[in-house]
Design a protein that fits this description.
This protein has about 290 residues and is mainly α. About 60% of the residues lie in helices and about 10% in strands. The protein has 13 helices and five strands. A hairpin with a 7-residue loop joins strand 2 and strand 3. It is globular. It starts with a helix and ends in a 24-residue tail after the last helix. The C terminus is likely disordered.
Length: about 290
């Protein structure tokens, strides 16, 4: 993928899909802009109903402190309990409560509905990331949580392409989403982030403050001739490099994303009705125009 506009479009669509997943997780489990590691941990709980803290940490990549904070919130919301394992008292299990089971069923339904509603978006992502030889779908997922897990694992791999400096700076999910928007769009203002990220103006201002403090974004004043008081946001070279690394990640993982989003686009369709992703011409990413 060499066309910058096409790459930006693919990243925009992936970001939009991730935001929709995050909102479902937040609404169902009481998280606040859940990180992808938190989502993977919740998926493990939803699938297995009872799982050890070690297993949750292994599948999610969460460190002990972050996992402890997440479990505390889930316990406070009455969704899980923790207890010694029957098989090994040294092992701590996380178990869904009755309320947790009910929320898990709601989550499963909401994710399935999201896949249904995301057909067009998923088709565009799949076509836009299709390698020169189109991948074939041999088997469709029947479990929305399993498909979600694989999508999130690919997303976690994509985040991993960010430079070490960005990750050590602890760019949270909302900060990453804001940085991508600022780096790929012209004339972004703080209020634009408020609507796109679903946060209050004060929340958007805080996110911008954090990105500026970490050296990834700067505020420009007098950049709009018609409005001298307007503040426009611009990515610094460090911010541009961080987003560029994600674009490189999309390039390297394009076969994975193409196959995954072909599955999302074909969710709940009989195999006979499924058309393999088309072979993309040129750079492999559709021009949004």
């Amino acid at each position: 993928m060499t066309d910058t506009t096409g790459q930006d479009r693919a990243m925009e669509l992936l970001g939009r899909f991730n935001d929709q997943i995050t909102r479902i997780v937040d609404d169902t489990f009481g998280t606040q802009w859940a990180e992808i590691e938190e989502i993977l941990a919740i998926i493990a709980l939803v699938k297995d109903h009872a799982v050890s803290t070690r297993q949750v940490a292994d599948v999610s990549g969460m460190n002990r402190r972050a996992l402890s904070r997440m479990l505390s919130r889930l316990r406070e919301n009455g969704l899980v309990v923790t207890r010694p394992s029957d098989g090994d008292g040294r092992v701590v299990e996380v178990v869904l409560t009755n309320r947790g089971e009910e929320q898990s069923e709601m989550f499963r339904t909401s994710i399935s509905d999201l896949f249904h509603l995301s057909k067009d978006l998923a088709q565009e992502i799949s076509a836009g990331t299709t390698p020169p030889q189109s991948s074939r779908i041999d088997e469709l997922s029947t479990d929305p949580i399993d498909l979600l897990r694989r999508v999130c694992e690919a997303g976690a791999s994509l985040v991993g392409f960010m430079p070490d400096a960005a990750m050590q700076g602890q760019l949270a999910a909302r900060q990453r989403a804001a940085l991508v928007q600022i780096a790929t769009q012209v004339g972004v203002r703080p209020n634009d982030l408020s609507s796109s990220l679903g946060v209050s103006p004060a929340g958007a201002a805080y996110i911008v403050d954090q990105l500026c403090a970490k050296g990834y974004v700067r505020r420009l004043i007098d950049a709009v001739p018609a409005d001298r008081r307007a503040v426009v946001l611009e990515a610094t070279p460090e911010g541009v490099n961080a987003v560029g690394a994600v674009l490189d990640g999309i390039q390297q993982l394009r076969e994975t994303f193409s196959a995954l989003f072909a599955e999302v686009a074909a969710w709940a369709q009989p195999m006979a009705d499924v058309v393999s992703p088309p072979i993309a011409g040129g750079d492999g990413v559709p021009n949004p125009h």
